[in-house]
Amino acid sequence: MQSRQKRSVNFSTVFILGILLMALVPIFLKSTTLTIPNSFNQLNTIFLSILIEAIPFVLIGVLIAGFIQIFITEDHIRACIPKNKFLAVLMSCVVGAAFPACECGIVPIVRRLIGKGVPLYAGVGFLLTGPLINPIVILSTYMAFGNDMEMAMLRMGVGFVAALAIALLVSLLFRSNQLKKTKGSHHSHSHTHKKQPLMLRISDMFKHSIDEFFHMSKYLIIGAFVAAFLQTYISTESLLLFGDNQMQTTLVMMGLAFVLSLCSEADAFIGASFRNVFPTTSILAFLVYGPMIDLKNTIMLLSVFKARFVFVLFVLITTVVFIFVSLSSLL
Q: How is the protein disposed in the membrane (predicted)?
C-alpha cells in the first residue's frame, strides 16, 4: 500500500516538473534553428496566466486554513453552526457570499472546516457561494456589463438560491464528511496548541499553511495545464456551432465555463463579450456555473474528497444551475 502511494507521489511530482519545464522552454530556447509552434506558445501563455491568476488566492486560502487548524477548535465550530440543517446551510451560504475567495483558494478552507467538524452540507454551501457572489465578484460583474445592475443581481440571486438547493440536496444524500483518508486527517491539534505560547502557535499555523499549499498546488498545476491544453486545441468557435436554441446555448456556455476555468473575479468580462452572440440566460449560466465547478477546481476537489462525492456534486451543480437559470428567463 505504501509503495503504491509512493509511486503515485513520484508520478505526480515528475508530471508536474515536466509541465513546469515545458512552460519554461520558450524562455530558454531562443535559437533560430529551432522553431517553436505558435500553439505551444499559446498553451504556455494560457497555462502561466491561469497559475498567476490563481496562486494568490490559493495562498490566502491556505493561510486561512492554517489559522482554522491552529486557532479554531471543534467547540468553536459546534457553537457557531446551527443544529437545524436548513439554518446551517443558510448560514454557510450567507457567510460565503460575504467572503471574497476564488474557487481555488476556497477548497483548502472548506477542507479544513469540514475536517474540524463543519457538516458537509454547510461546507458545500460555503464552497459554492464564496467564489460566486462575494462583493468583489458582484462589483466586477456590474462593471463588466456597463454599470448595469441587472446581470449582477441575477447572478447573485440565482447563484444564491442554486447553492442553497445544492447544499440541501447534499444533506439528504451524504451523512459522512466524504473527505479522503489522509495522514493526519483525523488528528486534532486543538487541545495541544491551546496551551502553547502565541508565537509558537503562529509558527505552527504557517507550517500547516505551507503543507497545505504544497498539497493543493500540485493539483492546481495539473488542472491549469489541462485547462490550458483544452483552450489551446479546442476552439471556442467549434463549441458555438452547437448552440441553435436557448437550451443548447445554455449548455454550451456552461461547458465553456467549465473548460476555460476562469477566475470568478474576472469571468464577467469574458461573459460580457458574448452578449451579441448568446441570450442573457446563457450568459447567466456561464457566470453562475463556472465559479461553482470548473476543470481545475474539479481536480482540486478530487484531491480532497472521495471521487463518488465529487461526481455527484458535479451532477447536482450542473442540473440545478441549468434548471434555475432556465427558470430565471420566465421572470
A: Multi-pass membrane protein
